[in-house]
Amino acid sequence: MFQRKALRLPARLMILALLLSMLPLGVLAQQGTSEIIGTVTDPEGKVVVGATVTLKNSDTGFTRDQTTTDKGVFSFNAIPTGNYVLEVEASGFKKAISNAVQALVAKTTSLTIQLELGNVSEVVNVTAGANEILINNTDASLGNNFNSTQILQLPTNARNVGSLLSLQPGVTRDGYVAGGRSDQANLTLDGVDVNDNQNGSTFAPVVRVNPDSVEEFRVTTVNANASQGRSSGAQVQLVTKSGTNQFHGSLYEYHRNTVTTANDFFNNAAGIERPALIRNLFGGRLGGPVIKDRFFFFIQL
Question: How many domains, the chain?
């Protein structure tokens, strides 16, 4: 009887049940997160207890708020990567707004917000330098974050984002990182293992990624934290692009020909002309909202 009734369920309910069963898997897969911590102080440098701290991302409608502890500390853990606005309010102080807070993957952003005496209706804008944000001053791990602009502008081999790892100090052309073998690197995409266990390459994940599909990534070459240290080599964490409240996209063609290609030493010694090399790569990407502040899409061709 139970099986017979299940077969008679409307198709619409069956589809809804299937979608609901898939939601937890989708949430668990998105693990490319970041952390923002900080301290709120008064003009004399003393901590401010009970200040209201609000974190907002206007691109996705994401928002969180909390109050500072008895040590004047706030901490936003496991938040999506992106650009945020941080607002701090406390009785007897002007409202402080920091408009340039970047949450980078696998990196803790540390801030110190100093409030000014005055009415809470008054606003003080705080600007943080982009270079200061990229510097790691919270732990002993060594490595660099690459944002979307850098990924698109830096030269890559065959448009493989993983090849940017070769620009790091302590990395050889064969993929050995700080003495670790090339097959000892750990690559994740949105928190999911994408290591190529067959070829064991440091520079190429098993899932092909390109500059138009990756929003940012971080490479930790040495002193990886406990959350990363699966292997002795580099720890590479990539985050894919996502849709936002604004429609955005592009169409492109990448052209490479023999004119900009150098001949190798042995061909020149034997009098052999450089081989022909012509590549034309076409593609595009489009992202935007399905439901504003709730649900987004991103398509990469």
Answer: 3
**Position 47: which residue type?**
V
Q: Where are the beta strands (DSSP E) in 82-223?
A: 82-89, 95-103, 108-114, 123-126, 142-146, 186-189, 192-193, 214-222
Residues 74 and 122 in one domain: yes
In a domain, 13, yes or no: no
| H helices present in 128-285, as ranges | 130-134, 148-153, 265-270
DSSP state of 273: P
Length of the chain: 301
pLDDT surpassing 80 at residue 67: yes
64: left (phi over 0), alpha (psi -120 to 50) or beta: beta
Which of 134, 166, 189 delimits the end of a domain?
134
State whether residue 163 is helix, strand or coil.
helix
Residue range 21-25: average pLDDT? 42
Nearest-angstrom CA–CA distance, 31 and 251:
29
C-alpha–C-alpha distance, residues 88 and 41, integer Å:
11
Residue 22 is predicted with a pLDDT of: 45
- Residues spanned by the domain of 267: 248-300
Measured CA to CA, the distance from residue 149 to residue 137 in angstroms comes to 23
Residue 263 DSSP one-character state: P
Reduce the DSSP state of residue 235 to 3 states and report it.
Answer: strand
Rounded CA separation 266/20 (Å): 61
CA 56 to chain centre: 17
- Contact (CB, 8 A) for 167 and 203: no
At 208-262, the pLDDT tens digits run 888 888 888 888 888 877 777 677 778 888 898 888 999 988 888 888 888 888 8
Per-residue model confidence as pLDDT tens digits over 269-289: 999 999 988 888 888 899 999
